[in-house]
Amino acid sequence: MSLRRRLAEFGFESNDDYTFQIDCLLRAEIAHLRTLHIAGESGRRKTALANALAQALEFPRIVYHDFAQPEPPLPPIVITTHEDGTTGDGPQELPPTAFERALTEACAFSEGERTALIIDQLQLADFHDQTRLFQFIQTHLWNTSAGSVKAHARQLLLVLISEDALYHPLAHVSYRIWADASGGRFDYRPEEFGLGLDARELFAAFAALFDALGAVPTASELRKLLGDALANARTEEHLRHCIFGWMEHVDRARLFSPAMTPLVHAAVMAVNRYQGMDHIEID
Questions:
Q1: What 8-state DSSP symbol labels residue 260?
Q2: Count of domains observed in the chain
Q3: Are residues 15 and 137 located together in one domain of the fold?
Q4: Cβ contact 222:188 at 8 Å
Q5: Does a structural domain hold residue 263?
Q6: Does residue 279 carry a pLDDT above 50?
Q7: Do 150 and 233 share a domain, yes or no?
Q8: What is the pTM assigned to this prediction?
């Protein structure tokens, strides 16, 4: 089964197949930890791709940390009263942060099994944490006040997600892929959707329309869109609503713009001809 289909099974549908890119990363001869940077526009489901990828690649352990989640409050400081009546709290050691715990757990898990560590919203991390992360990638060692742990380089995959450009040293040691569920080209065939060769004109009209839109439906989106369009779309307005209704990522302003009207019209006519309906011009 292709990686694209495996990703869809775990909640990330895309027109791109990331097999080549992931193979490049996993086969690369590198001294530092394998680090994947998932880039993409905001809202393009980078987190969904990261989690689906870890599951599709069958990592037994997935550790996730999101810098957007607030840290739990620190435990209260206990004041003790001494026999002489003085008070003091003594030295207080701060507990590890959620980020530090995630790194420590991932290192420990990697000693026994393949582990994916996903670090999300990295742009919100303190600069000190980003420099520590870079050192970890380089040395495989994670140092805390409680001691040091070492990651198994062949069993740990680090995945970084950021809404901003990565800190340059991190970008330098990362392999970058682009998350865009609506990317690619419209290369579907009628037989893949239970239609005959007489639907080729319809698919050609849709291909031209989606190419101009700069967005392509995923397989499941197209299946729902075809069913809706063939059953209900008889006008340009109908088809526009069908497309916007079923496609997660499409520019609505562009879809409904006058510039798209000729291509939308051609697609509606192809739908009507496929359905065997006559088009009557009314003066």
A1: G
A2: 2
A3: yes
A4: yes
A5: yes
A6: no
A7: no
A8: 0.73
